[in-house]
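Subject: Sanity check before I submit

Could someone independently write out the structure tokens for this chain? I want to compare against mine line by line before I put it in a report. The sequence has 354 residues.
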Amino acid sequence: MTPETNHRMPSATPPSNEAGELPQPYLLFLGDIVEPGYAKTAFGLRDWAPERCVGEFACDGAKVSAGLAPMTPEQARSAGARSMVIGVANPGGLIPDGWLPGLLQALEAGLDLVGGMHARLHEIAVLRESAARLGRRLVDVREPPRGIPVASGRKRSGKRLLTVGTDCALGKKYTALVLARAFERRGLDVDFRATGQTGILIAGRGIPLDAVVCDFAAGAAEALSPAAGAQHWDVIEGQGSLMHPAYAGVSLALLHGSQPDVIVVCHEHGREHVLGYPGLLLPSIEETIDLALRLGRRTNPSIRCAGVSLNTAALDPAHAQRVIAAESERLGCAVADPMRGGLALDRLVEECLA
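---
Independent answer below. Compare away.
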């Protein structure tokens, strides 16, 4: 990526936490979750920062693994870990009481704690008191910067791409990271802009949009992708879904504030219901494209959709290729699974840059 000094965010919105300041490497904590969709922080760090991950630790009853070596906090500390990262993004961003023994065990073992939940580590008395007694750090990365302005709606120089989803936890961050790297390989001036806790942990900077007071969320999106050179690209990590019953607000603020020239719509093949809402059908890809373009024109009349990022992780390679080709023909646009690469991804990248 381009150096941060080239396209620095305004002084009112400093990066939440620089990667170099976080105590690493990490032990990834998976809590007691049974739904893989809620382990996206652990999966994201495993896939995009594997050199910073020494193992994983979970509570009794957990049924999700990141595929790393299981370790106790004591073992992880002996293996060189400096902190335990909460690798879960559960509904509401809560830290259940059942997690506290494991978190306290990590502090006792000599590890700092890094959290990206809405619930702040330092606001939990037993963790705060134990950390103070043991000389350990509690690091909350889901802490928005001070001084975020209200959105201006004014057009900014530079080029922007935003990933938009039909739902949560289906590939918006991965798509943005893959596209940013693809742009960089083509010699383009590009920055990945993180808007959630996992992206911030990966990139070392960003603004957690869902932790910003709603009146200032679009302003935060503007500050996250400031005016830049005419050929510079910001590839912005999307959040939520414009039709999500709980999280549509942050998605709309991000769309209006980032003023994308290009959107890529992300969808998981086979997902029929909103994650965590079994009675609520997922909007179609076509509905999502149409709504994103209609709403996005409010701050960028030239917004366009370059194509679709299709998560086919549950399919074998041959089946995935057939599905990707069929969806591309059905929708009449570029469709690719960024994690599989290939000619389909090349076409999607070309459409983004067209």
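---
OP: Matches mine. For the report I'm noting this point. Residues 1-20 have pLDDT under 50 and may be disordered.
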